[in-house]
Structure prediction request, 1128 residues.
Amino acid sequence: MTVDPPADIAERRLTHALDEVGDDLAELEHVHRSLQLSLLSKLRANRFRTGPVKSERPMVVSTGRDDSVLLAEAVDGLATRMTAQSSKQLVLRTHALGAATFAAVNVLLAVRWPVATAIGWIALITVVYAATIIDRVLLYVRSMDEAAVDVVSDEDARAVPDDELPVFSVLVPAYHEPEVIQHLLRAIGGLEYPSNKLDVKLLLESDDEATIAAATAVDLPVPVDIVLVPAAEPRTKPKALNYGLQLATGDIVTVYDAEDVPEPMQLRRAAVVFSRHGDDVACIQAQLSFANVRQNLLTRWFTLEYAMWFSLFLPGLVASGAAVPLGGTSNHFRRSVLQELAAWDPYNVTEDADLGVRMHRQGYRTRVVESVTLEEANSDFVNWVKQRSRWFKGYLQTWMVHMRRPRQLWRELGPKGFLRFNLFVGGTPVLAALNPVFWLLTVLWFVMKPPILHELFPAPVFYLGLTCWAIGNFTIAYLWIVATRLTKRSDLLVAAILAPAYWMMMGIGVAKAILQLVISPSYWEKTTHGLQKRTPAHPPAVSPVGR
Amino acid sequence: MTATGTLLERPRTAPVPAPDVLGVPGRRRRRRTHGLAWWFAIAVFVYLALGALLAFHFDSFNGDAQARVGNAYYVLFSRDPHLAAIGFVWNPLPSMSVLPVLLLSKVWPALAERAFAGNIMSAVFMAGTVAVLRGLLADLRLRRTEAVLLSLLFAIHPMVIYYGANGMSEGLFLFLLTLATRYLMRYLESGSTRPLIGTAIVLGFAYFARNEAVAAIACVTFLVFAVQVHRTRGSTRERVRAGVADAVIVVLPGFFAFVTWAVASWIIVRHPFEQFSSQYGTASQLGAMTAVGFKLADRGLAVQMSLLMAPLLAVVVLLSLRRVVRDRDLRLLAPIALLGAVLAFAFIAYLAGQTAGWFRYFMTAAPLLVVLTAGLLAPAPAGAAGHRAQASRARTGRRPYALLAMAAAVLPSLVGEGVAMANPGIGQEEYLHLSHVFRPAPHVTTDLAPTPRARSLRERELHPASSRIAGSLDGLHLPDGSIVTDTFSPCVPFIILASKHPKQFVITNDRDFHQVLESPSTFGARYILAPADGTLAGLDAVNTAYPTLATDGGGVVDPEPAKAFREIGCPAFRLYAVQDQ
Prediction:
């Protein structure tokens, strides 16, 4: 019998191949086992030293540390370590004295030379107004730079092997929000990030039983720790964050609000952006938008305002190397930097904006990543005014804190940065308040032509003021309309055209904030104590005087 | 730290530039300037040198140019310096752009005295037009030699040279129009926001330069809407929405300019459209011009003017439209909608009897022809469809025929313009101001027959005559606010510009002019200066207020003039002494 040679060869080849496959399989199993081991070890390492083994349900973790020490650091860490940067005591005695003297001098001047003093002030305001508008336009132009926003493609974001990704500690403060807990935790669960690289901490007040109950009742694909923040004043979001930060283990610390829906790839993108830049980039801000755009005109305005803020002005600030006032959520920090800077100021109502400025002063930079987190827009007018006045007040707070030592600020930010800080953080609330006044004066002028106005606005001031008023209002209105195109929201065109009404509303918000500051300076403390409901985010308004 | 974030410890890679969603792709990576600065510098030098020859050697001045410099001068140096003195008869940008130059007139008086600030303005902006055009041709990705040849052909148009040199506002207007065209072409190619805003803002400025910009703004708005609807994908609703958004963006600055100017005019002179309807506005001037035999609404003349300005324009426009349809190359719609609209407006407005038939009104034909010629010879844009477009992209080799085609398309314009400018029936203004330059003659001392040639020779005497009048008035050593006069009358701007003591005049631009004119003695005015006759003398505010000035003194002056100026080149001015009431 003759052996069919081809069959023989085929058989031998097959045997050989099978052997090889067997080898490969063995090797694979080995790899698989070691990978599993390393995953497990990492998983364990990620958890709290004293934390229990994770189950599917979020668990209240014991911190294993003295709560009062943690609390003391959370409340007074900044105030004790960097007193000059804390707004715990907003007005220092020397400054109060200075301000009183300044006010007295002005009153004297106003009594002695009322018209001249008024002209001086009007001229000054007009110049600041003009400078602010020019600054806004410059930022707008800069925002169109390619490098203003970091864009990470899906492929690039997914290309990083899981074991090279940094660990993210996601801090989610919530207070009296049982209804959004489930929703939020799902959104966190929807994040496309290896769960062993996630250290999610839900920060709840220890006396907020409803929320605690709601949080422990949900099933999750991602392990979540519930951290109970001891009930203590001030009951603010930054305090809770400071508390949670001390327990965070990740390289990167992320802040989300309870009702946030972050884009699933956001953490991966943020990780890639960090890897693209130097160690000086300490924070990455994602873009915020709203889920309930079409609810009413107010939510449309708000959406457009956010689109401008996060797609145009913040990138413009980044591109021009200026301090970036952060938005209250969806920012990703290097934990080491947060700790170095004593993190958030629990006494500042826009602690995010303040932190952005403090980081910049220490030489750290912020980038904006193209990735959107959806929030819920404030759809109620009264609520909106409250929220807005809080933001403006926070801006004034931030401005006062950083201007305590103007020369030092000048040194740290440089002349351009110093000017921009003043225009952006200090000028914005003031000018948002003045814009309606200018509108009023203009209407008054046309309708009644009172001679006093003629006296108050001598020719140069009049021309500059009129030009500023006309060009300024047009420019900002135009920016709003262009923003619908730049942010691909042409559905909001009508809202953009109606924006001047929104600015009037802003004037109400800021007037409230300033009144509180002027009439009763001590009101600050009360606000802080009385802050029953934490604000979800503090990215400020786009006012007609620009933003 | 327990976890390892190896990604963060990796060596940094260079930041990846974000895709340019806002500008033309790749534009910023390879920023080439195409020697624009050189084009600009050389063109400024040439136009300014010629301008200096006109102003200092030939005494060739265009009345509108000196009036615009005058308006800027009154803002700074009149008895009542205020911005509104810039006047509302003309749109303000030409005078505004002269303001900073005039600040130096105390150092170099000729800037005002010979209105040379105007020549600087026109040279700078016409040179700017040349540079913008050169950049536009580079955007079209023409070969370098071709772009250079075409830019050069534009720069040496007789009309371009003359209006670059003579201090008129044509340079400024063409500069803005070509710049807007360049932005609009980028927008049509890339659909991005930045060039759209650029188009919009430049068009807004264009309205501040000249009324004709309205035609361009309207046409461009419609074009942008149509194109955006055409190229947006999605439901009809979404497409219309996108179209409306872009249309709103492109129209708003122009609309704002229009409203602002109307409101400013209304506040200050109580009439929103002073430039059209005032005593000095177009309507009145046309009336006066008809009276002295100008041809208005003459169809033959309109055709002649447009044909001579760019003889082959119609052919090139038709070929361009064919290319737009065939290759879907939308870029060529930009010059047609923008420059073409202004040209069409000039044509129609003249035929409707709404504007004077000045040859220069047809000047947008020159850049239009050049840009379209370039567009026809340029490779199709990356996105263009059709096999012909691909073939045209493939044809990137040498092609000497292109240079020939360019010369063939543009050279007839140069000849045509030359012919028109030498013909007093067509290039009326150009002949008036250039005839005595190219065919000098001895100074005229006696009045000549009313031929175009004689008018040109008289025109040369305008500046010396005005200076003599100014000197004579200065010799009276009058205090501020002594002489009431209307700056609209010929020679008056030059009299004030040349006077050592401009504050002695109470002029139309002053806020109290009408008060003073009504009762000169009350306000300390001592004289009234008014023309006794002349082309546009009937429009003079003084003569309008007191039609019987020369016969009975209108009750305010002594009808026997204190001085009568019989200077050739200026109207017969009379200086009437104000009677004490």
User: Anything to note?
Assistant: Chain A touches chain B through 44 residues (CB under 8 Å). Residues 93-146+404-530 of chain A form one domain. Chain A has a mean pLDDT of 79. The radius of gyration of chain A is 28 Å.
